[in-house]
Structure formats: C-alpha cells, structure tokens
Design a protein that fits this description.
By secondary structure, the protein is α+β, with helices and mostly antiparallel strands. Strands 17, 20, 23, 24, 25, 26 and 27 form a seven-stranded mixed beta sheet that branches. A four-stranded antiparallel beta sheet has the order 1-8-6-3.
Amino acid sequence: MADILTPALGESVAEASIAKWTKKVGDAVKKDEVLVELETDKVSLEVVAPADGVLSAINAGEGDTVVPGTVLGAVTEGGAAAASAPAAAAAAPVAAAPAASGGVDIAVPTMGESVAEGSIGTWLKKSGDTVAKDELLVEIETDKVAVEVSAPAAGVLTITAADGATVTPGQVIGSVAASGAAAAAAPAPAAAPAPANTGSAQAPASAHLSPAVQRVVSENNLNPASLSASGPKGNITKADAIAAIGAATPAAPKAAAPAAPRADQPREERVKMTRLRQTIARRLKESQNTAAQLTTFNEVDMTNVMALRAQYKEVFEKRHGVKLGFMSFFTKAVVQALHEIPAVNAEIDGTDIIYKNHYDIGIAVGTDKGLVVPVLRDADTLSLAGIEKGIAALGKAARDGALTMDQMQGGTFTITNGGTYGSLMSTPILNTPQSGILGMHNIVQRPMAINGEVKIRPMMYLALSYDHRIVDGKEAVTFLVRIKELLEDPARALLDL
C-alpha cells in the first residue's frame, strides 16, 4: 500500500485546502495520474498517484485543510491489472469513435506548473465552421497566463465547452471532423469574392485575432492584413492594433457622423474579470489588509546618471548587445541599500522575522492582460549588462505570456516604474510577503537651487512603500536616501562609498 502525501507547498506557505478529488474510492489509478488538487493562497497544486493500483482510501475530504506531509489517502498496489482490463475495453469504443468519424479531439494543453484549471475565452469560430490546421481557435485564461489553442487538423469544428467554462489540462473542449474538411472547404473559394464586393472591414480568415484584438479592429475599421504582428506565433496583439489606430489617418473623415453608431452601443458593458485580474485584485487587497503600509518620498537629480548613460550607451550596446537603461542603475543602487538596511530585505512569518541573504529583485511589468512581477535572481552578482539582459528577457516572457511559476516567486524586494507611463508620483502597494517596494516615476525638468543658484535639472520623485511592522521610519528614510546618493553620484558604487 502506498500513501498519498501532501507535497511541499512552496516558500512561506504552511497549509492548503483540498479543492477536489478526481477519483473516488475503488477506482483504478495509474502511477503519476492526478488524483487531487490542492489550493493555497498563492497557487494550485496537483497531487499524483504514487503507484499503479486501486484508490483504497481518502482521508481528507474536499474543503479540508492540510499541511505538508499529511496522508491524504492510499493506493493499494496490485489491483491495477484487474482494473486496467475493463478500462481498456471501455476505452476501445471511445478511441474507435473518432477514428470512424475522422474527427480529431481538441484538448486543453498543459497550462504551466501548478496551474490546475483555466477558463475558456471567446471562441473565434463557431460549431460548423471550417478551420485550417494550426488556426487559432480560442484562448484559455488562467490566473497567470493565457494559453492559445489551435486547430489540430483541417476540417469542420464542433465545440463542446462554451465560453467561460472552467476546464482542466487534457480535457476535450471540441473536435475537428477532418473527413468533412474537403466538402466544407470546396465552397469557400466561390464565396470569397463576396466580402470584396461589399467593402466590409471584417478580418480575413487568415488573420487569427483574439477577442480583444477583434474588438479594437472592428471598432476602428482597421484592416488586419495591414497590421504588423509582434505577438507569439506571428499573431496580432492588442498593442499592434492600438498602434495602428493613430497611423490610420484616412479613417478620420468617417468620424464626421458620430451620432449613428452611438445608438448601437450599450451605455454600459459587463465583462467578467480574467483569472489574472482576479488574482491581482485579491493579492493587492490582501497586501493592504495584512501589512502596516507606509510610504516615504524623496527626489533624485538624474543629471549624472543621464550623462553617464548618454556617454556610453552606444559602446555599451555594441559590446553587450543590449541597451543601457535606467533600471540597471536603480537595481544596483537598491541592492547596495538592501545590504546596508537588511530589514527592507526581510519578511514576517508569524512571530518570526526572516532576513534574506540573497537579493532577488522583482521587476513589475505591465502587460495587456495585467501587472505581473517576474523575479531577477541574484541581482547582487550581476553587472549592469547582466541586469539589463535579465530584465529584457523577463519583460519579453511576460508580454508573450510565457512566464513560469519559478520566475514569479521568491522575490525579496520589488521595483516598479510608473514613469514609463508618465506617472509623476504614486504610493506603490507592497508585493507581500516582501517588506519594501520602490516606485520610480517620470523624469521632469524642474528649477532647483544648486549652490545658491537656480538651475534646471532632470528630477525624479522616488517612493518607498514599506511594512512598518518590521521597518522603522529611520531605516526606510535612510534606505531611500542611500539610493538617492548612489544615483546622484554613480562613482560611489565603484568606490564602495
């Protein structure tokens, strides 16, 4: 008999709750088959069968709270052979059915480590439509990323999971009847000239547009064929469509009659939040409710950093293959300040304080689907070039929806740059359980008193939000002043001053 144990739940996660069992007592199971799903305050975890056999006991029911090492149930080995025979016999007709009809199942792909379920977005085709192999059919949204599902073959589509339905990896959400592809595809060329005669702005079948992109395209009368595609697999992103709006100047005369479309649009629109947006909302509110958050401000004269960057940016890019930005200077300054003020690099766990001797810096990245915070590991060991390369790679993975759970967990401090969007000042919310987050803002030319004279300098406001339970005001102000000093005189970092 093999016990089914609760696995380690991740850093600083002490307990989980049983979400659901996928099998019941007496069912045959195979080794590594998913048996139960656990939910923590951070992620969902799957627990698999430790061996082939029969599920003989379930010790913890759905909704129960468990800790690492808890025995959830047991698998009796040796019963798998007897159970597998009827299972194979039962599976035979199921396998034969698609073969007879020439259909190919559309299954939910793996959605990332510890991601147990997702929600069906809006299908780009409807049942009965003809689809081409590898044509984008639907996006499945999880609380971390969106996963694209394409047609496994050419043929006629049948949908079995509606928009908004909750699905799990491996679940069949539709099928493509390959045998009907030839017949269904034949009339397509004859019908193709019709849209050309009507002058419709509908996207052609070759343009695989997500629902968000389709909305921007249709509302602004854009031609998908003329849009540049920067998304994964050559898809057009929402940013591509928005960028094309300003370039589509010929569409301006059509705005002369704005009253007509007004009546066709509702005054309000209710849209369900994506799983990622729900997770962001929950985490931010938990952060406000848990930590004693306080924000302190300062301003930094960016003259010297900007001069250093302007002097060496071309040589830097030729040597290292990456542009020299401000984030590398800020990251270097933050790491040095964390060395000197360790409380800002710590976290609270119950009645204990955990001081971190590693410096994994979270970099907040805004994407079309929401804010994510990938982590730059061991930033204290990286050069300016290493930091820039690491941030560029994480930013690209975030925008492509390709971040892994490992890349988003375990940060010790976070930097967020609202200045890229024009923010002058803000009060960032802590990325719990971290005790500090630095907010960068827009660089603005302002008159400053320098040695008794008024001079125009490029100034940036800095904001440090911190957990007052663990970081005192003196430590927070000292930390922020240290960052200011290192940025205003970059030579200090080289001389270790």
